[in-house]
Structure formats: structure tokens, C-alpha cells
Amino acid sequence: MRTVVTHPGAVVVLPILDDGRIVFIRQFRHALDEILWELPAGTLEPDEPPMETARRELIEETGYRSDSMEPLVEFFTSPGILTERMSAFVARGLRWVGARPDHGESIAVEPLPIQTAYDRYLSGDFRDAKTIAVLGMFFLRNQVGRGS
Asked: What is the mean pLDDT of residues 42-54?
């Protein structure tokens, strides 16, 4: 017997400001009773394409709208028990339009320079799996490293 949780899918966005900083959020997670550094993310609405979810979640959680949303990678978050497929996007050409967090969300927007994010990535400061996966793929594909 197996327990499988069916999930509609989700997105995660790596937003990059024109000055090169990555926009992170610091979000309180009730299950952990702590604040985590994360990339903005959210669950697909019924019949909503992942890119539209990414655009919606970026505005809701960070207050930025993107002129350019590029697919980065898709992955399964926990394939042993969960059907959730996560689509990751890189957002550029960001314009401030004002955040619209969901009721009950406690979020602070925290941009970091790419090198700082890379250093924090290597030191293990990020503990959210989707953030770790997406940053790793982004850093590899863009040859981000110490001294770059």
C-alpha cells in the first residue's frame, strides 16, 4: 500500500533586478515555526499555465512585474509521495507595481547581489529545497562562482 498526494503543480521564480541582484523573500513557515530565505513560488490555479502562475506569484509575493519570463527547469519536489511538478522561471525586466500577499502570508522582500547569494548558497544558508535546486541550476548554467 502506498500513500500518494496529488498536487496541481507549482512554480518558483528567480527574479533578477536590472542591477543584477536576485530578489528573495523571507517567509515565515508555520510548519517549521521559523523564517526561511526563499525564491517566490506558488501553486497553479485550475487550468492556469505555469508561466501565468509565475507572473501572478511574482507580483503577489515581491511586488515586481516581469517583462521577461524564461523557463529554467522543471522538477518533481518529492516523487516518492507527491505528484507535484515544479516549473522554474528566471524573471528579468522587473518593474515595481506593489505586492499583493495572500491573507496570512508574512513576507519580507530581500534582494541580494548574485555573488552574495552564491556565497550564502555554498555556506548552506538556504534551506528551502526549491530555492536550493533553482539557484544551483542557475549558478551552473550562468557559470556563477567565487570571484566571478
From this structure: 97
pLDDT 10s digits, 90-130: 999 999 998 777 777 778 999 999 999 999 999 999 999 99
Q: Locate all alpha helices (DSSP H) within 32-142, ordered by sequence.
A: 50-62, 114-123, 129-141
CATH number assigned to the domain with residue range 10-141, chosen from the 4 options 3.90.79.10, 3.20.110.10, 3.40.50.2000, 3.40.1050.10: 3.90.79.10
**Residue spans of beta strands (DSSP E) within the chain:** 10-15, 21-29, 34-38, 41-43, 64-76, 85-96, 107-113
Residues 6+ apart with CB under 8 A from 43: 7, 8, 9, 10, 53
Which carries the bigger pLDDT value, residue 147 or residue 1?
Answer: 1
